[in-house]
Amino acid sequence: MVKLVVRDRETIQEAVRRFRKLVERSGIKKEMRRREYYEKPSETNRRARLRAERRARRTQMLSR
Fold first, then answer.
1. 18 contacts: CB under 8 Å, gap ≥ 6
2. What pTM does this model have?
């Protein structure tokens, strides 16, 4: 949970900007996007496999 204490003499715009940064850093936004639509477990596994293949390919290219 993200908590924001508004400082003395802080404008609403500054507080909102700080709040957005806190939400971004905490990963809430990313989690919301991920849960926006249901994803079948097979699709999740496929994406994880492709990510691992890309990572392996990238490390292989760098090690040459």
1. 4
2. 0.58
